[in-house]
Amino acid sequence: MSSNQSIYQKYNLKTVINTSGRMTILGVSTPREDVVEAVNFGLNHYFEVKDLVNKTGRYIADLLGVEDAVVVSCASAGIAQSVAAVIVKDNLYRLENLHAHPHDVPSEIVVPKGHNVNFGAPVGTMVQLGGGTLREAGYANECSPAQLAAAITPNTAAILYIKSHHCVQKSMLNVAQAAEVAKAHQLPLIVDAAAEEDLQCYYHMGADLVIYSGAKAIEGPTSGLVIGKQQYVEWVKLQSNGIGRAMKVGKEGILGLTQAIASYMTLEKESGQQMVEKMTAFIENLNSLNGVQAKVVWDSAGRDIARTEIAFDHAALGISTQEIVDRLKNGDPAIYFRGYKANEGKIEVDVRSVSAEQLHTVYQCIKALF
Ligand SMILES: *Cc1c(COP(=O)(O)O)cnc(C)c1O
């Protein structure tokens, strides 16, 4: 703790209370000690990196019961390299000339329109980095299996499905349905499950490649995981001599994420019910404030995550929710909420990354505003 404090002082950094969840803009998560030890071991030793990549991939694949796996630098890199993999396959010329000119192989990536989101960077940018072109299927508010299939052409290289709370959820086909469409057209299905908690279900639903962010649910170091069918994972690995070099993952990231996955699969997770218990006093305190209403809400993407939703009565408080969010963000400590619904007068508090003490600080800072 003392060395942490000195880093904040040394660079004059703002201290942060993160009630927004696994957010890249705040540093995502704080890995456990066993992960830090694995990172440390990696930093202090040499390896044949290919050997390290292959054997850790094998170890992770066996843990998860999938054909193969590879650690990459982040989920975004996983998307870009997966797209490049399905276009380039094992062709050396295309590997080394991906962006030099168009290639005489399929390069379109079909994505449900409601999945063409900005997760902090646009999905389309990652597809383009991988040498692909995005082709949208369906509409902003719907995509059925038939609409997905209708967007497939002879130039389609893969179907990409984004499993995320960022996406449109209603009238949207599920992963198993997307897998059926892919199979019927002999195309690979790539699933971006960056922030998802289940490391096996999308593979079992028929995805050929599934991508996870290493620091989100898994709480590893900055890294990403790509799992899937042997042949496709092999092609992803080849990208380390192509676009993958610009998104290189280090030995420390590879060993850190591998350890984090092993722990993630064995340790008991904090359940939604435990999160509810953690926030009960906080909710009671908030509800004692005039013009403030707090309650438990469950994750909109269906994960076992409970959060506190706080609704502000603008008329009673004389201040808009956006102003409240901004003031708390600019305070000391800076408090970050989930602000997706600020325009509806509501914010959400994710308690996974905060202590009970920090939660009380959040309450006091809200109280002090009025
Ligand atoms: C976070 C996220 C990403 C990017 O993950 P990184 O590991 O930060 O690159 C991609 N897709 C979705 C849906 C995400 O939530």
TrEMBL record:
<dbReference type="InterPro" id="IPR015421">
    <property type="entry name" value="PyrdxlP-dep_Trfase_major"/>
</dbReference>
<keyword id="KW-0808">Transferase</keyword>
<feature type="modified residue" description="N6-(pyridoxal phosphate)lysine">
    <location>
        <position position="216"/>
    </location>
</feature>
<keyword id="KW-0663">Pyridoxal phosphate</keyword>
<dbReference type="InterPro" id="IPR018319">
    <property type="entry name" value="SelA-like"/>
</dbReference>
<comment type="similarity">
    <text>Belongs to the SelA family.</text>
</comment>
<dbReference type="Pfam" id="PF03841">
    <property type="entry name" value="SelA"/>
</dbReference>
<dbReference type="GO" id="GO:0004125">
    <property type="term" value="F:L-seryl-tRNA(Sec) selenium transferase activity"/>
</dbReference>
<protein>
    <submittedName>
        <fullName>L-seryl-tRNA(Sec) selenium transferase</fullName>
        <ecNumber>2.9.1.1</ecNumber>
    </submittedName>
</protein>
<dbReference type="InterPro" id="IPR006337">
    <property type="entry name" value="DgaE-like"/>
</dbReference>
<dbReference type="InterPro" id="IPR015424">
    <property type="entry name" value="PyrdxlP-dep_Trfase"/>
</dbReference>
